[in-house]
From TrEMBL:
Protein name per UniProt: Cystathionine beta-synthase
One Gene Ontology biological process: cysteine biosynthetic process from serine
Entry GO CC: cytoplasm
Residues of the full protein shown: 1 to 330 of 458
Keywords: CBS domain, Lyase, Pyridoxal phosphate
EC number: 4.2.1.22
Signal peptide: none
Hydrolase as UniProt keyword: no
Length: 330
């Protein structure tokens, strides 16, 4: 019988899919690494299983223990899936800008979720960083994976995402583009691709306008899961050749185009990464092979990015038809 004993076995090994429509004009190939094929629906499954394996091995996570983590949803889903298989309790802490649907998903997997205000400084006692620290200290047998500092986060991408991209492109990848949140994806996969290619692969970060990675001050933006107002340990500043800033509007308009034109129903950070990838592809020659990582699916954003009223309220849509004005993103 062709049976998998656990969903955990199915994490990683996601497909690479050619973008054909939104690339009009670019001579380079643009290939999307579609991470919603992971069982938890996002790239974060990779780090979840790796961080838990390492914590079990070191004794930091004991049988029956509780996993406490500040997460915008995707890391929580990955952790919840592995936790369910292995009998751990999960308590997640989310900022209130996270879509309601994503929080409901975490609860559906059996996790407990604490929601905190977005509009406070990271060192404020109500910030989601502070609240998760407090819970991790108070709950007995609690373990905090700390995806912003855990070296297993970038390591999981060094050992899975990077090698997969190299193998799938048969070593022909020339550019790797990914959004930067914790920095785990770009630092781990980027380092691997640089090493294996002898420095030939260019690594390009995509960042929301306002975030520190692209020189911003940490001012608010609406794209979820990427950008920072602090510099986490998981981001290796030596890996990116360039970091491109992308506006909320361009990110969301491209996200809608990906659903309509490429049948890729994906999240806002995917639109952001694709805008950056298309800028790279526009400058690159015909032999370039640009791989862009799409971190998650779009179903968690139906009430925001895919909702005309929400988009209009923020001024992201123009025209009376209520449709995104396409073609002007780049
Ligand atoms: N997009 C989304 C939707 C995410 O949840 C994350 C993870 N925070 C990222 C992009 C960025 O990935 P990383 O943390 O590896 O930089």
């Amino acid at each position: 019988m062709q049976v998998h004993d656990s969903l955990v076995e199915l994490m990683g090994n996601t497909p690479l899919v050619r973008l054909r429509k939104v690339t009009a004009g670019a001579r380079a190939q643009v290939l999307a690494k579609v991470e919603y094929f992971n069982p938890g629906g996002s790239v974060k499954d990779r780090i979840a299983v790796r961080m838990i394996d390492a914590a079990e091995a070191s004794g930091a996570l004991r049988p029956g223990g509780t996993i406490v983590e500040p997460t915008s949803g995707n890391t929580g889903v990955g952790l919840a899936i592995v936790a369910q298989e292995r009998g751990y309790r999960c308590v997640f802490v989310c900022p209130d800008k996270v879509a309601r649907d994503k929080i409901d998903v975490l609860r559906a997997y059996g996790a407990e979720v604490v929601v905190c205000p977005t509009a406070v400084a990271p060192d404020h006692p109500d910030s989601y960083y502070s609240v998760s620290d407090r819970l991790a200290a108070e709950i007995p047998d609690a373990w905090k994976p700390d995806q912003y500092a855990n070296p297993e986060n970038p390591r999981s991408h060094y050992e899975s995402t990077g090698p997969e991209i190299w193998a799938q492109t048969e070593g022909q990848v020339t550019h790797f583009v990914a959004g930067i949140g914790t920095g785990g994806t770009i630092s781990g996969a980027g380092r691997y691709l640089k090493e294996v290619s002898g420095g030939r692969v260019q690594v390009i970060g995509a960042d929301p306008e306002g975030s520190v990675y692209s020189g911003g001050t940490g001012r608010p933006y609406l794209v979820e899961g990427v950008g920072e107002d602090i510099w986490p340990d998981t981001y290796d500043r030596d890996i990116c050749d360039r970091v491109l800033a992308v506006s909320d509007r361009d990110s969301f308009v491209m996200t809608r185009r990906l659903a309509r034109e490429e049948a890729l129903l994906v999240g806002g950070s995917c639109g952001m990464a694709v805008v950056a990838a298309l800028r790279v592809a526009a400058e690159a020659g015909p032999d370039a092979v640009v791989v862009v990582l799409l971190p998650d699916g779009g179903r968690g954003y139906l009430s925001k990015i895919f909702n005309d009223e929400w988009m209009t309220d923020y001024g992201f849509l123009r025209g009376s038809s209520g449709e995104a004005v396409v073609g002007d993103v780049l």
